[in-house]
Amino acid sequence: MKLWDSFEFSDQGTMDETSPFDNFFKLTRTQRLYGFGICFVLGFVISILATILLFTGPLSGFAVLYTIGNIISLLSTGFLVGFKKQIKTMFAPVRWFASVVFLGALVLTLVVAFVLQNGVLCIILCIIQWMALFWYCASYIPYGR
């Protein structure tokens, strides 16, 4: 892919070909794109299934599935930038706020679902999760935020 090879990426966030963690798996760029796509779609599907469970099952089941779906979606970006670099750059100046909001919303969603059992607050936190995940992922795209 000639076009793909011509891209250069900054330290703020995309392909990290030299990461020791990535070399361990030895994934090609095409495999990384497939990994990204599969994880992102899988996370989305799990979140949709969780939404169905919201109306038919327990609140705790919804919260757990929705949170797992968002975590899988977050892991999808690891295929693009490299998992080690993703962990390092989660708290870079351009995305630390989105990372903290996202991780906080993950924890708070589960706490509200299991301890408080407040459905409205749980749904609000899930919306915050989704918006923070979107904001976080957009931070990897130049001028994406």
Molecular structure report:
This protein has seven helices and no strands. The protein is an all-alpha fold and 145 residues long. The longest helix is centred in the first third of the chain and has 28 residues, at 29-56. The two termini are 28 Å apart.
Detail the topology: elements first, then pairings.
Elements: H1 2-5, H2 20-25, H3 29-56, H4 59-81, H5 83-89, H6 96-116, H7 119-138
Helix pairs in contact: 3-4, 4-5, 4-6, 4-7, 6-7
How would the global form be characterised?
A: globular
Strand content: under 5%
Number of helices: 7
Order of helices and strands: HHHHHHH
Main beta-sheet strand count, sense and barrel state: none
* Strand-pairing-aware structural class: mainly alpha
Instruction: Give the beta-strand count.
Output: 0
User: Can you give the mean pLDDT?
Assistant: 80
Could you estimate the helical fraction of the residues in percent? over 70%
The poorly predicted ranges are 1-17
Query: Kindly, what is the distance between the CA atoms of the first and last residues, rounded to a whole number of angstroms?
Result: 28 Å
Radius of gyration: 17 Å
Provide keyphrases for this structure.
145 residues; mainly alpha; 7 helices; globular
Entry summary:
It is a multi-pass membrane protein. The protein has 145 residues and is an all-alpha fold. It is built from 7 helices and no strands.
